[in-house]
Amino acid sequence: MRIDIITVSPGLLQSPFEHSILKRAINKGLVEVHFHDLRKYAINKYGKIDDYQFGGGAGMVLMIEPIDKCISELQSERTYDEILYMTPDAPVLNQAIANNLSLKQNIIILTGHYKGVDQRVRDKFVTKEISIGDYVLSGGELAAAVVCDAVIRLIPGVIGDETSALTDSFQDNLLSPPVYTRPAVYDGMEVPKILLSGNFPKIDEWRAEKAYEHTKNIRPDLLED
Ligand code: ADE
Q1: Is 137 annotated in some ligand binding site?
Q2: Which residues pair with 51 in a beta bridge?
Q3: Which residues touch 201 (CB under 8 Å, ≥6 apart)?
Q4: Which of 12, 44, 54, 138 gets the highest tally of CB atoms within 10 A of its CB?
Q5: CA-CA distance, 218 to 225, in Å (whole number)?
Q6: Where is the tRNA methyltransferase TRMD/TRM10-type domain (predicted)?
Q7: DSSP states of 172-215 as a string?
Q8: pLDDT for the residue numbered 171
Q9: pTM for the whole thing?
Q10: Is 135 in the pocket of ligand 1 (CB under 6 A)?
Q11: Domain containing 49 — which CATH number?
Q12: Residue 80: C-alpha distances to residues 111, 147, 161, 221 (Å)
């Protein structure tokens, strides 16, 4: 998979890709991530990429021309399966969206800033808009990093034990059951006996029950679907 991220703040985005699972995925050649500084495509020598909104109102809007130049350059080199735009006024990211994106070859992620992008960018280029939650971030960069993490860890070979990504919370609309490790007793607190029993069918049953209970208590909305 190849991911091209268009941003006005490349520095804000790089660090998550230099650690842990994302770094390993890149080093193993399972994913390539490229950052494109929108200012390189500015409309003048002063680096202009945004302007006031028509109709008045506070906040700057990213202009279509620099974004068009950047996307067109990328599209002249390869075909993209999806052009994502990170914005709070969009459907919220979930596991189904992450699963779907993990099957794509080439993706562009456009991150907004200030008041966002000229609507014509969304109309002309964007194929999928994603929010990471009902709150407003200062820009789409951190949201793009969240999407990349959720997607890249699903690519076969990225996580050592592949079953582990498949048993994550949300893969089956249920939250994960509780997990325990050594010691079996800590400060009088005991690990549930069933987990020490070696009876794996019973352990699976216990986990399914706990996952259901936990989901019912914390996120009953997930059980409605
Ligand atoms: N940009 C600003 N806030 C955002 C959010 N909640 N999700 C995605 N992109 C954003």
Answers
A1: yes
A2: 61
A3: none
A4: 12
A5: 15
A6: 1-224
A7: TSSPPPP---S-SEETTEEPPGGGGS--HHHHHHHHHHHHHHHH
A8: 72
A9: 0.93
A10: yes
A11: 3.40.1280.10
A12: 17, 17, 29, 34
Q: Is 134 in the pocket of ligand 1 (CB under 6 A)?
A: no
User: CA–CA separation, 21 vs 14, rounded Å?
Assistant: 14
Radius of gyration of the chain (CA): 22
> Do the strands 82-86 and 60-62 form a parallel or antiparallel pair, or are they unpaired?
unpaired
Q: What 3-state DSSP class applies to 222?
A: helix
For residue 168, pLDDT over 80 is answered with no
Residue 8, amino acid = V
Task: Tell me the ipTM for this assembly.
Answer: 0.98
Query: What residues make up the domain containing 178?
Result: 169-224
| Pair of tokens at residue 92 | 């919220």
Q: Classify residue 29: in a domain, yes or no.
A: yes
Which numbered atom of ligand 1 lies nearest the CA of 140?
1
Q: What is the CATH number of the domain that holds 174?
A: 1.10.1270.20
Same domain membership, residue 147 and residue 175: no
Residue nearest to atom 6 of ligand 1 (CA): 88
Q: Is 84 in the pocket of ligand 1 (CB under 6 A)?
A: no
Q: Is the dihedral of CA 133, 85, 33, 114 positive or negative?
A: negative
Average of per-residue pLDDT across 105-114: 94
87 lines ligand 1 (CB under 6 A): yes
Q: What angle do CA 128, 28, 74 make, to 5 degrees?
A: 40
Residue located nearest, by CA, to atom 4 of ligand 1? 88
